[in-house]
Design goal:
The structure holds two protein chains of two kinds. By secondary structure, chain A is mainly alpha-helical. Helix content of chain A is 69%, strand content 4%. In chain A, helix 3 links the parallel strand 1 and strand 2. Chain B has nine helices and eleven strands. In chain B, helix 8 packs across helix 9. Chain B starts with a strand and ends with a helix. Chains A and B meet through helix 1, helix 9 and helix 17 of A and helix 2, helix 3 and helix 5 of B.
């Protein structure tokens, strides 16, 4: 037993050294995992900042402004700057080269208003043009205000109380905390972190199994008196160390990533401190261990590195798609989510971002699943090792 | 000391792809009369030989004769269907790890780790054999001197030539100073000088100063056997068809040229093989 452990350590040290010598692959994986945090945050904050600035802008574009002096007067009283819409606004809205919805006023607007007819005012937008669409509800509210003001005035002239029009008052109360609201935007972070771990483990896992077969070094390796499981355990340990390194680095990369947040709102909402980073790491490590073992088990059946890459696609796909269940499944969290690897980690990491507490059972279930997967993977690789060497 | 008795091994053929055959070996239905006619290839049918200490035993046979399969069984990589193998009196099937500790194998596959230096490749195997770091380093230096590898030790093996690879792989196989050495076609892809150097090393390992090793050496090249081997085991179609020294085999076949003698022995085996098996 002691001898086998020593052999496992020897293999572990050698595989780590081998992996660290592969500078190019390592550099790509490390750079992408370390830069990922700041880059993702930068992209998110850019998006949020642009939405915020649009929401704050008090501008409205009207086509046929000259026909509606009353409306113009109202809009300007609401401190909006009113612009005449460009003549080709429809085409430009479709092309997304114009980012504001346009209010189209008919020619007889004023006359109809005086007569007491109901003139039709269009708000023209393109639902495929996201930025224009984002402003539509604001313009709707604005025009609604105009209608209400006109109605109140006519009622007041007839001596009717304004309360007749609004027999009840509607108030909004949002239950979501700032952090919960933020996860609508930062919710993709766990996903990126998991992908980094997956790709970190992928190369090392394939190199120690299918790569070893392709080089023809597996057969001589098995002619050593070390136990098979010790060899496999050492290899697995090395792969797990590499993916662990990636996991830790990518989790920590979001800490300095916060400095690049341009939006103050987002900075206030995105709570990611050392505590969150530590929880992320605790949740990710079992997944990193399990992924290492599973990838090795898939790769040991392949004769070449290339073949192994093809067959590992299924694992990559599963890890990439499982977390999306929580996106598509509008029924919300189901208990089985915690039993599915990758999905469980995604769910729990999202909870960490929301600032919710994690219970022991919630952490224990994915841990158990990952432990079983790891054991199965290592067992399968040891079983296949001899067959793989001679084929 | 290596003893191999009545060794046999067959492999199941894949069910599809009927045209596919184990190289050179003969196929037939497994047990005649069993309706479930699974096609099997008999890689090794009856191989037996004794390789004593302090001697070089050549395992001579054409391609596909079953040499590699025999040596893989000896190294406990695959288990035989029948027969027994003993290394220094230890049964391979019963105590494979003890056997591997007393065996240095240079197999058909001799892949090195390209990102490690020659020294690291060799020391790695030393550590796997349970040598301490110092012992493995010392042994590496000693083998490097013997195999003229010292200049290469601290270079990564990625750019090594065939000969340099073979030397490194041989040093790796011998790092634990095994009393028994098994080499599978070691001169494949080597030039004249490298082949000569290897021969010299093997001759030295056979002497008492070199440790009186028991060396088993598989090849399909007559000249190597003539120049190097103290005993020859001719293997054809998975069977041992003749054993003896080069001179004995020449006398037995009445030939003066060893190549002719070998062809005659192998041809006889071919005739024997076409007859029904006992």
């Amino acid at each position: 037993m002691k001898r086998s452990l020593a052999a496992a350590l020897v293999v572990l040290r050698k595989e780590l050294r081998d992996a660290l010598r592969d500078r190019r692959t390592l550099a790509i994986v490390l750079v992408s995992s370390v830069l990922m945090g700041p880059l993702v945050l930068l992209a998110i904050s850019g998006l949020v900042a642009s939405l915020e600035s649009r929401a704050d802008r008090r501008e409205v574009y009207v086509s046929g402004l000259a026909h509606a002096p009353t409306l113009r007067n109202y809009l300007e009283r609401q401190t909006y700057s009113v612009h005449e819409a460009p003549p080709d606004f429809e085409a430009r809205l479709r092309r997304s080269s114009f980012d504001d919805p346009v209010v189209v006023v008919p020619e007889d607007f004023e006359a109809a208003l005086v007569r007491g007819d109901v003139p039709v005012v269009e708000i023209v937008s393109d639902s495929a043009n996201q930025r224009a669409e984002a402003s539509t509800s604001r313009i709707e509210r604005l025009l609604g205000g105009f209608s209400r003001e006109r109605a109140l005035l006519s009622l007041a002239l007839r001596g009717v109380s304004a309360q007749v029009l609004e027999p009840m008052q509607v108030d909004d109360r949002d239950l979501a905390s700032t952090q919960t609201r933020a996860t609508r935007i930062t919710g993709m972070l766990p996903y990126f972190v998991m992908l980094a771990v997956l790709y970190g483990a992928l190369h090392a896992a394939l190199d120690t199994t299918a790569g070893e077969r392709e080089r023809g070094s597996l057969e001589p390796l098995l002619m050593n008196p070390a136990e098979r499981w010790a060899l496999v355990a050492g290899k697995w340990g090395a792969v797990a160390c590499v993916s662990m390194l990636i996991a830790v680095l990518s989790c920590l990369s979001f800490l300095p990533g916060q400095w690049v947040l341009r939006s103050d709102t987002l900075q206030a909402m995105f709570q990611y401190g050392p505590r969150e980073a530590a929880l992320f790491i605790v949740l990710l490590l079992p997944l990193a261990f399990a992924l290492s073992a599973v990838l090795m088990a898939v790769a040991i059946r392949s004769r070449t590195f290339k073949e192994a890459q093809a067959s590992s696609t299924i694992v990559v796909l599963a890890v990439s798609l499982l977390p999306l269940v929580s996106v598509f499944d509008l029924g919300g969290e189901a208990p089985w989510h915690l039993w599915a690897p990758a999905l469980a980690q995604n769910t729990l990491m999202t909870r960490v971002l929301k600032g919710e507490a994690l219970g022991w059972s919630q952490v224990a279930i994915p841990l158990l699943v990952c432990a079983v997967l790891t054991a199965l993977g290592v067992w399968y690789v040891s079983r296949q090792l001899h067959q793989a060497a001679v084929k | 000391m290596i003893e191999v008795r009545a060794l046999a091994k067959s492999f199941a053929l894949p069910r599809k792809g009927g045209g596919w055959r184990w190289r050179g070996a003969r196929t037939r239905a497994d047990a005649p009369g069993s309706g479930n006619a699974e096609r099997r290839v008999h890689a090794v049918v009856d191989v037996h030989f004794d390789a004593p200490d302090g001697r070089i035993t050549g395992l001579l046979g054409p391609n596909g004769a079953g040499k590699t399969t025999t040596l893989r069984m000896l190294a406990a990589l695959i288990s035989p269907d029948a027969g027994s193998m003993r290394v220094d009196g230890i049964d391979v099937a019963a105590r494979p790890r003890e056997v591997l500790a007393r065996l240095g194998v240079l197999s058909d596959a001799r892949g090195l780790y390209p990102r490690l230096t020659a020294r690291e490749n060799i020391v790695y195997y030393g550590a796997l054999h349970g040598l301490s770091r110092d012992a493995a380093e010392a042994r590496t230096a000693e083998l490097a001197r013997m195999l003229d590898l010292t200049q290469l030790l601290d270079r990564r093996t990625a750019g090594f030539s065939q000969g340099e690879r073979m030397k490194t792989a041989l040093a790796r196989a011998l790092v634990h100073d095994p009393p028994n050495i098994v080499l599978d076609e070691p001169t494949n892809g080597l030039d004249v000088l490298a082949t000569r150097a290897l021969r010299e090393s093997l001759r030295w390992l056979r002497t008492p100063a070199g440790g009186s090793k028991c060396i088993v050496f598989s090849t399909h090249i007559m000249q190597e056997v003539e120049r190097l081997c103290d005993g020859v085991v001719v293997v054809a179609h998975g069977r041992t068809v003749a054993t003896g020294t080069v001179d004995e085999l020449l006398a037995r076949t009445g030939q003066r040229d060893f190549e002719e003698a070998f062809v005659e022995l192998a041809f006889a085996a071919e005739r024997a093989a076409s007859e029904p098996l006992p």
